[in-house]
Amino acid sequence: MKKNRIASLLAALSLLAPAAAHATNGMRMIGFGAVQDSMGGVGVGATLDGASLLTNPAGIADLGRCLELGGSYFKPSVSYSATGSMPAMFVANDGASLDSGRGASPIPVIAYVQPVTDRISAGLGVFGVAGMGVDYATNLYYGPTLTSYMQGRFTPGASYRVNDRLTLGVTANVMVAQMKYDVASGAGQAAHDTSTTVGGGATFGVKFSPVKRVTLGAAYETRSWFQDFSFDVPARPNPMAPGTTIPGGTDTLAFDQPQSATIGVAVTPVDALLVAVDVQWIDWSSTMGAGLPAYTSDPNATGAMPFDMRWSDQWVVKVGAQVKPTARLALRAGYNYGKMPLDPDRAFENMAFPAVSEHHVTAGAGYALGEKLNVNVAAVYALNAKLEGANAAPPPPMGSGQGIAAYSTEMSQLQIDVGLAYHF
Fold first, then answer.
1. Mean of the pLDDT values across residues 70-95?
2. Cα–Cα separations (whole angstroms), residue 284 to 32, 89, 217, 293, 326
3. Plot region of 385 (φ>0 → left; ψ -120 to 50 → alpha; else → beta)
4. pLDDT of 135-161, one tens digit each?
5. Cα separation of the two ends of the chain
6. pLDDT category of residue 14 using cuts at 50, 70 and 90
7. In this structure, are strands 166-182 and 314-323 parallel, antiparallel, or unpaired?
8. pLDDT-derived band at 178, boundaries 50, 70, 90
9. Which residues pair with 142 in a beta bridge?
10. Could you tell me which residues come within 8 angstroms of residue 388 by beta carbon, excluding any fewer than 6 positions away?
């Protein structure tokens, strides 16, 4: 009974994840909450809000007792085109630009922080962390291309103030993820309906102030280990061999999320100005590299097309600034850059999982409605990014030695954040 209640809670949490979010820094959001997002996603050297539970839990020591509620409206614009050397496979789409039909997504931020003693603070948060996916009505293989991955995170954490200069923190990451995909149905591939899985990991953080007005921060997020996704696959006709059937069964897929490490610095040259820079490394190659994510079942048993994302590791630079022209008003701006981790030679994979965004410009503001309540807003725009390349041959069973001459995937993103922070 207790196990069922936990499963129900995690399933409910999964509904709060970014249901149609696409890749920003890979498939992770650039920041969490209106304040971080308005400043390019910084949050390791500078403690900005309760989302520090995710980015650097050492920072919650500086927040006092607070409750933060917020959400984001996330709208990507994604398109794909291909020009090939196999006219029979490109009858309607050869050279045409196809637009993904995925709509906008709500992304939640909920955080509560409570000092326990003069040295210890505790916190709890619920966040939408990562997502990606597309919805093309038709593709290269006479069928839809639908992909969806989303991850929500439940984060209990604590910080310990060693002295006036040094603070340590840790967060337990309790996660739920959902995934589904329907690709290359014209080539005999079966739809994989929604599968839900749970996972775990941890984030460790430290903040140190060597001199007044300068703070250094570092955070390490472990790999997030998930249970395998499990998909029931039906038997279906084999379009490559009329009169025969592709057997059904169960496909199980191992799909973890990568470790990451971030260092940051925050400087307050004058009381009204804060400038912060974070540099982050994300280990995508360990979970989205060559031959990954990988089936733990035999894909040949059900005719499943293996994944081969071939993502590389990613370096991300985040820069943000906040100026307070009055005691109540804060104006913010930022920039975020992360080189896309994709391999240009993986045309089909890059259509289905288009993590092409690189440059993000951000802005926002905060206003104190009184002594305790603040409202924050932010806007994030990911400049249109485009990736072009070619595959040596289409995925099996369509492979015939003929290749795609050229393809392109491109995307821009718009995100609007609103948040409330109440300090008790």
1. 72
2. 20, 32, 23, 11, 42
3. beta
4. 988 766 667 889 999 999 999 999 999
5. 37
6. very low
7. unpaired
8. very high
9. none
10. 344, 406, 407, 408
Residues 107/341/286/201 CA torsion (nearest 10 deg): -20
Count the Cβ atoms, other than its own, within 10 Å of residue 357. 25
- If you write DSSP's letter for every residue of 120-143 in order, what string do you get? EEEEEEEEEEEEEEEEESS-TTSS
CA distances from 152 to 177, 219, 322 (A): 6, 20, 29
- The identity of residue 395, as a single letter, is P
Can you list the pairs that 367-370 forms with residues at least 24 positions away whose Cβ atoms lie under 8 Å?
Answer: 367/328, 367/329, 367/330, 368/327, 368/328, 368/329
What percent of the chain is modeled with pLDDT above 90?
71
Residue 321: what pLDDT? 98
Which pair of structure tokens corresponds to residue 17? Answer: 């994840």
Q: What is the pLDDT of residue 401?
A: 44
Query: Which tokens sit at 146?
Result: 């639908």
Q: Give the CB-side neighbour count of residue 176, counting CA atoms within 13 A.
A: 21
Task: With cut-offs at 50, 70 and 90, classify the pLDDT of residue 94.
Answer: low
Q: What's the rounded mean pLDDT across residues 104-125?
A: 94
> Does the structure show a pLDDT above 50 at 307?
yes
Residue whose tokens read 């496909």: 251
- What are the sequence ranges of the domains in the chain? 2-423
Mean pLDDT of 203-224: 97
Provide DSSP, 40-80: TT--SSS--STTHHHH-GGGGGGS-SEEEEEEEEEEEEEEE
Distance of alpha carbon 68 from alpha carbon 29, whole angstroms = 18
**CA angle, corner 96, sides to 90 and 99, nearest 5?**
115
Identify each DSSP E strand in 183-259 by its residue range: 192-211, 214-221, 225-226, 229-233, 236-237, 245-246, 249-254
Question: CATH topology for 2-423?
Answer: Porin (2.40.160)
Query: What pLDDT digit, counting tens, does each position of 282-295 carry?
Result: 999 999 999 999 99
Burial class for 27, CB neighbours closer than 10 Å (0-12, 13-18, 19+): buried
DSSP-based three-state secondary structure for 418: strand
Give the residue-averaged pLDDT of 240-262: 93
For 360, the enclosing helix (H) or strand (E) is: strand 359-368
What would the two tokens of residue 140 be? 């290269």
User: In the predicted model, what is the mean pLDDT of residues 195-213?
Assistant: 97
d(CA 254, CA 303): 17
Tell me what the mean pLDDT of segment 179-190 comes to: 85
